C-alpha cells in the first residue's frame, strides 16, 4: 500500500481542498516522496487521467491572462484546439485495450532480470527514480527528433503552428511504441510502482511549460525546463532546431550540448519546418509515415531506403545523418525585411513583363 493511499483514496473525486491542492501540485512535480510512494503497482493512481480538470482550468486561466494582456491574436483558435484535443484522444486509444507498453515491458524485465530491488519507501529511491526517468526522457526525446521512424510518432506534437496549453495535449499515437526501450535499464533495480508514478509526474510537469504567458523564471532557468526553454524547442527558427529536449531538468541539455536560450530579438515561429496545413486528426498522426514510405519507395539503393527510417528527418544521400541546417527554411526574417524582399521581387517581375511587352511591340512596329 501507499504511505498515504488510505488518506487519499478518493483523490479522483477531489473530495477535499487538500486533495485538489495535491492534484495541482503534481503538475509542477511539487510533491514529496511520502505522498507519492507506493508498494504495489496496482496502488499507483492514474494521476494523468485525474489531472484533466486542472488542464482545462489552466487553459481557461491562460485565455484570461492573454485577454488582459491585450494579446487576443495569441488566443487559441478553435480549429487548432480541436486538432490538439483530437490528437490527444487518439493517442490514448491503445490504453483501452490494456496496460501501456512502457509499464508492461518494464514489469516483465523487473520480474525476470532484476539484479537488486531498491526499497520502494526510501526517499533516496524516489530521488534516484526521478533523475533516472528524466534522463531517460531526455534520450527518448532526442532520438525522437534524430531518428525518422521515431520522429514519425513525435511530429504530431510539433505540428501546431501555435504555442499554448492546448498544444501540450497534442500527442502522437505511435510514440509510445518506441519510447519504452529507453527506460528498461531502470527495471534492473527500481520497483515498477516507483517508475509508474514518476513517468506520470514527468509528463504532467511538461504541461504548464507550453505557454507564452510566462517569461523567464530567473535562477530557475539554469536548472529547470521552463516555458522559455521549451518555446525554443518548439521553434522552427534555425537556432531552435534540435535544441532543449529536457523533460523536467534542463541540466541534461547543458551537459550534452543541446541547450539554446531563447532570443528576444528573434521571435520564435512554431510548427514544423514544412507545415502540414491540415486540421485532419488522422493526417496529423500519419503524415510523416506517408512521407517516409514515399521517400523510401522512390529513392535508389536498399541501404538508402533503410536510412530513410533510421537517419534524421532532414537526411538525404550525400548529407550528414541529421541533414544540413542550411536546408531549414529561414523563418528569422523580420516583417520589414520580408516586405522589402517581396517588393524587389514584384519590381523584378514588373521589369521583366515590361521588357517582354516592349519587345513584342517592337516586333509589331518593325517590318
Question: What does the model show?
Answer:
With 367 residues, this protein is mainly alpha-helical. It is built from 14 helices and no strands. It has helices at 17-26, 47-50, 52-68, 78-91, 101-113, 123-146, 148-158, 176-179, 192-205, 227-234, 251-256, 281-298, 302-310, 335-365. It starts with 16 loop residues before the first helix and ends with a helix. 31% of the residues are buried.
List the helices and strands and how they pair.
Blueprint: H1 17-26, H2 47-50, H3 52-68, H4 78-91, H5 101-113, H6 123-146, H7 148-158, H8 176-179, H9 192-205, H10 227-234, H11 251-256, H12 281-298, H13 302-310, H14 335-365
Helix pairs in contact: 4-12, 6-7, 6-9, 7-12, 12-13
The gist of it:
The chain is mainly α and 367 residues long. Helix content is 50%, strand content 0%.
Looking at this protein, list some descriptive labels.
disordered N terminus, 367 residues, 0% strand, 14 helices, mainly alpha
Order of helices and strands: HHHHHHHHHHHHHH
Largest sheet: none
Percent of residues in beta strands: under 5%
Shape: globular
Total strand count, please? 0
Give Rg in angstroms: 25 Å
Whole-number average pLDDT?
89
Helix tally equals 14
Structural class per helix/strand content?
mainly alpha
Unreliable spans: 1-12, 334-339
Proportion of residues in helical segments:
40-55%
End-to-end separation in angstroms reads: 102 Å
Amino acid at each position: 500500500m501507499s504511505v498515504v493511499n488510505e488518506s487519499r483514496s478518493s483523490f479522483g473525486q477531489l473530495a477535499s481542498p487538500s486533495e485538489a491542492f495535491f492534484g495541482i501540485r503534481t503538475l509542477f512535480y511539487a510533491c514529496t516522496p511520502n505522498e507519492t510512494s507506493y508498494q504495489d503497482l496496482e496502488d499507483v493512481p492514474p494521476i494523468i487521467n485525474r489531472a484533466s480538470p486542472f488542464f482545462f482550468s489552466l487553459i481557461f486561466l491562460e485565455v484570461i491572462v492573454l485577454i488582459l494582456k491585450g494579446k487576443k491574436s495569441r488566443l487559441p483558435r478553435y480549429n487548432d484546439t480541436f486538432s490538439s484535443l483530437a490528437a490527444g484522444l487518439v493517442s490514448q486509444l491503445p490504453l483501452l485495450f490494456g496496460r501501456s507498453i512502457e509499464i508492461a515491458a518494464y514489469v516483465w524485465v523487473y520480474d525476470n532480470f532484476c539484479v537488486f530491488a531498491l526499497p520502494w519507501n526510501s526517499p533516496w529511491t524516489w530521488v534516484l527514480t526521478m533523475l533516472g526517468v528524466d534522463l531517460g526522457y531526455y534520450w527518448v526525446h532526442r532520438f525522437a527528433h534524430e531518428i525518422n521512424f521515431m520522429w514519425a510518432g513525435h511530429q504530431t506534437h510539433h505540428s501546431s503552428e501555435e504555442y499554448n496549453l492546448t498544444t501540450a495535449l497534442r500527442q502522437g499515437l505511435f510514440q509510445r511504441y518506441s519510447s519504452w526501450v529507453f527506460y528498461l535499464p531502470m527495471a534492473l533495480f527500481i520497483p515498477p510502482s516507483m517508475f509508474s508514478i514518476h513517468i506520470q509526474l514527468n509528463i504532467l510537469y511538461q504541461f504548464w511549460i507550453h505557454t507564452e504567458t510566462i517569461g523567464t523564471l530567473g535562477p530557475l532557468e539554469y536548472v529547470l525546463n521552463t516555458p522559455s526553454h521549451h518555446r525554443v524547442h518548439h521553434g522552427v527558427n534555425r537556432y531552435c532546431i534540435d535544441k532543449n529536449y529536457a523533460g523536467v531538468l534542463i541540466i541534461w541539455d547543458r551537459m550534452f550540448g543541446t541547450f539554446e536560450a531563447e532570443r528576444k530579438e528573434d521571435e520564435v515561429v512554431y510548427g514544423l519546418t514544412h507545415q502540414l496545413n491540415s486540421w485532419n486528426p488522422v493526417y496529423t498522426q500519419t503524415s510523416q509515415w506517408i512521407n517516409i514510405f514515399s521517400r523510401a519507395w522512390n529513392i535508389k539503393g536498399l541501404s538508402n531506403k533503410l536510412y530513410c527510417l533510421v537517419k534524421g528527418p532532414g537526411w538525404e544521400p550525400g548529407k550528414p545523418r541529421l541533414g544540413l541546417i542550411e536546408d531549414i527554411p529561414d523563418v528569422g526574417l523580420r516583417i520589414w525585411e520580408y516586405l522589402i524582399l517581396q517588393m524587389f521581387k514584384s519590381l523584378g517581375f514588373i521589369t521583366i513583363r515590361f521588357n517582354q511587352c516592349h519587345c513584342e511591340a517592337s516586333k509589331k512596329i518593325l517590318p
